[in-house]
Amino acid sequence: MNLIITCQRNLEESTILEIQNILERFGDIDAIIEKTVFSGIIQIQTNLDIMKILDGFKNIIEDEPWLIKYCSRVIPIQEECESGLDEIRDKVISLSHVIKKNETYRITVEKRQSSLHTKDIISEIANSLSNKVSLENSDWEIIIQVLRNRTGVSIIPPNSILSVNKQKRFKLD
């Protein structure tokens, strides 16, 4: 998976069709779009650049906001691993080359059906990186999405997770 899209519960089928149409517009007719065991969570494997997909979603919201009715959030995933502290830490370390020496980061963890503790995940990652943490004004955001036994990891610029409703409201202002 390299994208997670959230939607309202019981609207997964409509959301999947919406995502399929959008990804086809962007040029990916072979994307794998699947419901997860979690209500309102859809995982996607696309061969397109995930950050360009986020930009594409923003452009659609700007030009044709009515085309996005069901997607709530679009979360980019750069790497996937088993849901263990060591595996998550190792994935973060392998992606951390984007964080320059004097730059800061924050860690955002979302867990679903996992016995891992958020503070343990954060401690494990923070102890393995030499950069400083900044909760208010970070240069990078480390995203940890735990879906039972699989975890998605990304290190992206802050506010890269697209909230469709916020973006639509922002457009109106």
Structure summary:
With 173 residues, this protein is an alpha+beta fold. It contains five helices and nine strands, in the order βαββαββαβαβββα.
> What helical percentage do the residues reach?
25-40%
Low-confidence stretches: none
Structural class of the secondary elements? alpha+beta
Strand content: 25-35%
The total domain count is 2
Any descriptors?
173 residues; alpha+beta; VC0802-like; 5 helices
Q: Any overview of this molecule?
A:
- The chain has 173 residues and is an alpha+beta fold.
- The protein folds into 2 domains: 3-77 and 159-172, no CATH class; 79-156, VC0802-like, CATH 3.30.2130.30.
- Helices cover 35% and strands 27% of the residues.
- The strands form 2 sheets. A 5-stranded antiparallel β-sheet has the order 2-3-1-4-9. Strands 5-8-7-6 form a 4-stranded mixed β-sheet, with helices on one face.
- The longest helix is centred in the first third of the chain and has 15 residues, at 12-26.
- The radius of gyration is 16 Å and the shape is globular.
- The model has no long low-confidence stretch (mean pLDDT 96).
